[in-house]
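USER: Study each token:
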Amino acid sequence: MSSKKHKKRQDTEIRSQPSSPRREVVNIQISEGISFYLRYYQDDKDKFSIGGIDARYLASLLRRLRDLSQLNAQEVINNQSKSLRCHGIAWKETTEPNGFGIPNESALVNMPYQFQISANEYGRVHGFFSENVFYIVWLDPDHNLYS
């Protein structure tokens, strides 16, 4: 019988081998588009919940975010396309007159925005920009922000 004490571990041979040759680093130019963050995302209000929504909604949402990530914040805000309809939110005209209700909101949110996911379907995305980052706060598949 051989003793386990005297067996050489196989992985020690791998560690003693020279590392593979250095890879060449290639700098790739990535265009500056907006990024989407979910740090302030809220799904605890029934009217802004996507709990019972079908997979087509999620697929449409992801396609819209992908497409918008090709643009910068000013291009999204100033876009006049009827298929995007990005515009500011006037809280007093909404069902949420006190705003998003996130901590330190007055310092974080210069102007709240919304954009539609697709023309006349799947509702809106509500949030705010900070430079080229759009913070998604609410997903509103049933257009519940406005009466």
Notes: The helical segments are 11-15, 55-68, 73-77, 105-108. The chain has a mean pLDDT of 87. The longest strand covers residues 121-130.
